[in-house]
Amino acid sequence: MTATINRTDDGPVRILTVANPAKRNAFSGDMAPQLRKLLLEADQTTSVRAIVLTGDANTFSSGHDLQEVLHNPETAGDPEANAAFTLPAELGTPVIAAVNGAAYAAGFILALNCDIRIAGHNAKFCAVGARIGLVPVGGQLSRLLDIVSYPVAFKMLATAAPVAADAARESGFVSEVCDPADTLDRALALAHQIAEVSPAVVRAIKTGLRVTLHDGLDAGTALEPLLASVVRNLPDGDEGVQSFLQKRPPQYPDAPAVLQDRLDKVGADR
Hints:
Helix content: 40-55%
Low-confidence stretches: none
Oligomer: single chain
CATH class of the largest domain: Alpha Beta
Number of helices: 13
Order of helices and strands: EEHEHHEEHEEHHHEHEHHHHH
Largest sheet: 6 strands, mixed
Radius of gyration: 19 Å
Number of strands: 9
Strand order of the largest sheet: 1-2-3-4-6-9
């Protein structure tokens, strides 16, 4: 089987599957640039309201193909080569990781940078940097502290020991643990819940939370009315009120293609 990223759609949810089962879904060849391209494409497709990332068979991803890293060691720390793994956190579209097995090294970074993680009981998370003599990058020294406490983050990074799914849930790193066979279905159910609400508001929420985490509470507080003013000019508010009064599910329009640029601009200009 060719090492690749498979793309399928489940209504408004885009599913991207890391597929290289012969190497435990390691990223080989052009898989990382391919994933980056597919993530950007999904984020720019207005009909896509959520993205689910998962792995083929019973593994999420073991990270980089180590044989390729041995021949090109600079790849492991190259920001451009690793751009795909941190990209989910930067997108306006929500990204859910359906972790159906081991998420090691770059696979761990990819799961870390998603908005929510749903894990099978067989999932294990491992930041391998300290064990192989590499500083943990890709949000491991920054974003991880937005999700778990300092002691949990330090132990995870400094021991480079695998963390089981139940322990990851207890720490808050994982939102839900389920039967491995149900991992994708549970992630899709959550993705469809998100897809039912206003996509414009979801993008504003993700932008606001990202700015607050990066710049602090005062910045986030100042940004709230600015984000609200951008979304106020869209039909979502009227539809939300009308659907409530008419006792029917809301039918929100797709977010305008330029919306994320506007949200990012008010975040930068606040």
